[in-house]
Design a protein that fits this description.
241 residues, alpha/beta, Rossmann fold, 12 helices
Length: 241
């Protein structure tokens, strides 16, 4: 049975897309079948992060019944399977987010994990995603505003019957003025399953259009994404429903 996991945050710029790509790649290296879906119809970045500037077929066209599922699925050179959304404003205007249910229905039983890159905030688009996912993984930065904004996201996820899988602490450098993992866990009442620094290798991998885990698998940040992937696999055993 497919596990649909939405990566969510209270505000933008926390690193959801990078996290979805690299957790997906880490799961792939654990011999799990994975699809990463860009359900951020407003500001999609999944394809761009992986070097696909203008995919010929996208989620938008599928939702309008202009393309079949196999036409909008791409296998990256790293082996990661992705479904991109269009960066075109015209495509965005012509796509109804209420049709997102269609992609989830078609992806059910297609792979073990579908990681969903989502829009930030609390709008209609994220609600449509959370109606169709099973779990939410919270991506935060180590500052109070990011963490507090995520409280609303967690409430919205639970309102739509999503289990909170955990917290990915991103862009953490153990600075004096950063919140510590234990403090974040106390505020959000969920475990931190990975602590990722924003290092030069992440910048390099983005420039190369590659997952960090593929380009620099032994880097510290890649190991943290792997730790998050390990946790999700073990979480499945503890919570088989």
């Amino acid at each position: 049975m497919t596990r649909f996991i939405a990566l969510i945050s209270g505000k933008g710029g926390v690193g959801k897309t990078t996290s979805a790509i690299n957790i997906g790649q880490a799961l792939l290296k654990l011999n799990r079948s994975v699809t990463v879906l860009d359900a951020n119809l407003m500001t999609p970045n999944l394809a761009t992060h992986l070097g696909f500037v203008d995919p010929p077929a996208t989620l938008n066209q599928f939702l309008r019944q202009e393309k079949e599922l196999h036409e909008i699925m791409y296998v990256h050179s790293s082996g990661l399977q992705i479904i991109p959304a269009s960066t075109s404003y015209e495509e965005f205007r012509n796509t109804n987010p209420q049709q997102l249910v269609e992609i989830f229905e078609h992806l059910d039983n297609s792979s073990e994990f579908v990681l969903v890159d989502t829009p930030s905030g609390l709008g209609e688009e994220i609600s449509q995603v959370l109606k169709n996912t099973d779990e939410a993984l919270i991506v935060v930065n180590p500052n109070l505003s990011s963490v507090m904004d995520s409280l609303k996201s967690i409430e919205l996820a639970r309102e739509h019957n999503n289990i909170i899988s955990g917290i990915l602490l991103n862009m953490a450098n153990n600075g004096r003025h950063e919140l510590k993992a234990a403090e974040i866990e106390a505020i959000l009442h969920s475990p931190v399953i990975g602590r990722v620094k924003f290092d030069r290798k992440i910048k390099k991998s983005l420039h190369q259009g590659l997952p960090l885990n593929h380009a620099y698998p032994y880097s510290r940040s890649a190991k943290e994404f792997k730790r998050a992937a390990d946790y999700l696999c073990k979480y499945l055993q503890v919570n088989p429903d």
